């Protein structure tokens, strides 16, 4: 009888960088990848070696399967719920890419070769993982809605958040938070 050892995952290691630094980093990653508001995010994930799997949600405290497993650079899987909207999925995928670009390299510094798993459902008392979640959200916002483009679009749409959200393929709430962060509201 053979015994297969289950993978031991490490948790994301936060950068502790400022929100502005993470925004700038995310915008740089998007530019390097030639990713813009009208680019399909699923194609991008595939191009950089990842895959997206849609899962049926499990009835566990109302939690949806929003997570990423990174086995190595260029080998990762993002899990999204099968019941959410395209704009929510786009933000979720960008959030998980935040973990990939921000946190995976740091986990490898202290745990070389160990796979990383990040999930949105972290213990509210775990300040380290809460910080990693904030950073991934900051990354997603700037990755999907770069500052210069967002300000120009916000102005050209007369501040209409529905129109701005549609342009960037995000929810009106995500556009509202980004506008607020950029002091446009």
Structural write-up:
The chain has 185 residues and is an alpha+beta fold. The protein has two domains: 19-144, Orthogonal Bundle (Arc Repressor Mutant, subunit A), CATH 1.10.10; 146-185. It is 50% helix and 12% strand. The chain is built from seven helices and four strands; from the N terminus they run ααβββαβαααα. It has helices spanning 19-32, 41-47, 86-110, 127-144, 147-156, 161-168, 172-181; strands at 50-55, 67-72, 75-81, 116-119. Strands 1-3-2-4 form a four-stranded mixed β-sheet. Helix 3 crosses helix 4 (127-144) and helix 6 packs across helix 7. The longest helix is centred in the middle third of the chain and has 25 residues, at 86-110. The termini are far apart. The relative contact order is 0.18.
Summarize the structure.
The chain has about 180 residues and is α+β, with helices and mostly antiparallel strands.
Helix content estimate: 40-55%
Structural class label: alpha+beta
Q: How would you sum up the global shape? A: globular
Low-confidence stretches: 1-5
> What do we call the CATH topology of the largest domain?
Arc Repressor Mutant, subunit A
Helix count, DSSP H or I runs of 4 or more residues: 7
Protein name: IrrE N-terminal-like domain-containing protein
Pfam family, one: Peptidase_M78
Domain IrrE N-terminal-like: 78-180
């Amino acid at each position: 009888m053979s015994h297969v050892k289950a993978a031991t995952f490490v948790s994301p290691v936060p950068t502790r960088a400022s929100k502005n630094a993470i925004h700038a980093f995310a915008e740089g990653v998007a530019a390097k990848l030639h990713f813009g508001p009208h680019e399909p995010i699923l194609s991008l994930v595939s191009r950089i070696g990842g895959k997206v799997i849609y899962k049926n949600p499990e009835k566990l405290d109302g939690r949806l399967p929003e997570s990423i497993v990174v086995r190595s650079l260029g080998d990762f899987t993002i899990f999204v719920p099968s019941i959410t909207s395209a704009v929510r999925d786009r933000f979720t995928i960008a959030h998980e890419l935040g973990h990939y670009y921000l946190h995976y390299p740091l986990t490898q510094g202290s745990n070389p070769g160990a796979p990383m798993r990040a999930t949105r459902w972290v213990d509210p008392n775990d300040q380290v993982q809460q910080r990693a979640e904030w950073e991934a959200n900051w990354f997603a916002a700037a990755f999907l809605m770069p500052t210069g483009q967002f300000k120009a679009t916000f102005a050209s749409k007369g501040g209409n958040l529905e129109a701005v959200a549609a342009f960037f393929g995000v929810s009106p709430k995500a556009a509202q938070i980004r506008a607020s962060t950029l002091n446009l509201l």
